Amino acid sequence: MIIAGGAYHETCQFPPDTAFFGSGVRAAAATETIVSSRNQLHTCIGSADNETLETYAATFDFGVHITEVPETVSFDYLHNHSNPVFSPPEASNYNYELSGISGDAILRFGLLEGSAIVSGERVVYDPQSADPVPFSENGSTAEELALVLNYDEAVKLASEDDVEAIFTELMAGTTAADVVVLKRGAEGAIVRTPRTTTRIPVFQTESVWGIGSGDVFSAIFAGEWAENGESAAEAALTASKATAYYCKHRHLPISRELIESVPNTSSSTFIPPDATPPTVYLAGPFFDIGERFVVEEVKHLLESEGVEVISPAHDIGRAAEYDSPEEVAQQDLDAIEKADLVFALLDHLDSGTHFELGYARKDGTPVIGYTNDFETSSETMLLGSGCEVYEDLSSAVYHAIWRAYA
Predict the structure, then answer these.
(1) Are 305 and 397 in contact (CB under 8 A)?
(2) Which of 33, 66, 183, 198 is deepest in the core (most CB within 10 A)?
């Protein structure tokens, strides 16, 4: 399979992690044993990282075709569910063109450093961009084209926000895709072909490492659909299982045996696009700028997954703004009673948040907690009362969505 994609340095601050992958390298590594041919990676990289890339190519048995850039791009993630900041800042102005890429089976990712012009029989396109460019805009062609998009990318490309309208526009409009795979994060995916619509579940895992999970999904889908000739629905189901395995173990390559080890049981979840959004109460201290930043970040993450969030910091306010403590406390407790789930920020855990969590558990409301530095003194009552605690935001957010919809 031919892969056009990035080779990037990746750094995560919370939890701390460093890696050299990017979309292209990760895709080539993930599919080493899935595809029958030897993967060929077309990518951009600075000369200082040539030896590193050659080592990866030897380890995962893929060929490399390098377009040299002044400096390899680095992505810095604040946490493993955040959008990255890239450097050097001028990389988005490199405007390099990777051309002459042709073959039977091609996976094309969006590139920060420029654009890959491809021509193939079966092509998978994953733009991986907040401002995605239509597949054919740079002159790329495909006899059969599959788009793998998250919801925001699909909205931008289709200029529609209704799921059915998105599919109609992407398959019948100027894009004229033969397959559209709409990824919906914790809610599963939908595959549309001219004849079928298939719901693809997401497979729940205890831990969910978000960085690179989209690369793995697109890579396995492309390997199965473009290279191996599987149906789009079967390819997407295999890709979903492979992504679950990666999110839990972060192990590459992902063999067919490892994919089959993901149980096709009650761990699979699909949430329909028209499902009523659950309500999540966001509990946690917001007394200083650091605490307020975390509240803002988690509120944004939950809302981006489609849930309704009640945040005391935003919707109720501080006790000093009310005539009596009873007035603000009652509003907090009423909001908890309305919620389907409480999401708890457990760092700097204050007495008010502790009380809210106890009230929620006494009422039978599930609690998902996130902490970067869990105090052992808090552990017994929280875990003993059935609260689920995660030490990375990606795992906490995904489990909150799954539990809230349950």
Answers:
(1) yes
(2) 183
